[in-house]
Amino acid sequence: MYNPVLTFDIEEWFHPVLLGASERGEQKPRAREVLLWLLDLLDERKVKATFFVLGETLELYPDLFGRIASSGHELACHGFTHKPLWHQTSESFRAELRLFKDRFTTMLPGVVLRGFRASTFSLEQKTAWAADVLESEGFLYDSSIFPYRNHVYGVPRAELSPYRLSSNDVAQDAPGGRLLELPMPVLNFGRIRIPFVGGFYSRVLPLKLQVFLIRRTLKLRPVILYFHPWEFDPGVPRVPSGKLNEWITYTGIEKMRGRLEYLLQKFDFMTAWELVQVCERSRPSC
Question: Considering just the CA atoms, what is the radius of gyration of the chain in Å?
Fold first, then answer.
């Protein structure tokens, strides 16, 4: 049985793609207070997590990322901007990764960068070229595949357990590949797949049901949880972006601090890199 993996995508409240081109006001950053609360909470509970960092936030809070690293958490890459891969080319994506690595190594010398997560889970079949770019740029694992298709993203045929990623087909294991994929968790009911934890799903589904489903799934395969700082900010600015997008983006935010504290009571967590090491020891399966 595995421990669940705890991850955070460190971006600002105005980065979610569902806000579209709506007027976002001054775009004043707000993540500092949430990050301080989160780091204090993780220190208190002695929990280590993986922080997928956006380059733009890395520059906003250099002191906090130094604390994250010194506290023993894992730092990984979430790109430099929050531009989804389907709005990039292989050349622009490579340039973003190199810019991120340059700033990262300058600000955090000695901290090893191993993992990547695409904004908006935008690594899918039409952006499969990103797998080759990540591998050639020295990344060891990716956590961008959502094995379920919604109205924005997803790879509905993707493997449910960690597998080797290839640009030939990002849904299937590539024996001999070097880049390990850590997919998002879904329940599999025949041909039907249902997400049950992380982000929006952790805000709308009953909490005790999530705990039950996490435990059930962990008996079969790893579970990766993901959250964003703005999901723990009850005062987050509300941007008019259509009723559906507003519901997906803002529903349940006022409950999320308590929900995270409850999950930390119920589980022992691990980092993404710790899961990668477990998978490497148990190859060819994880």
Answer: 18
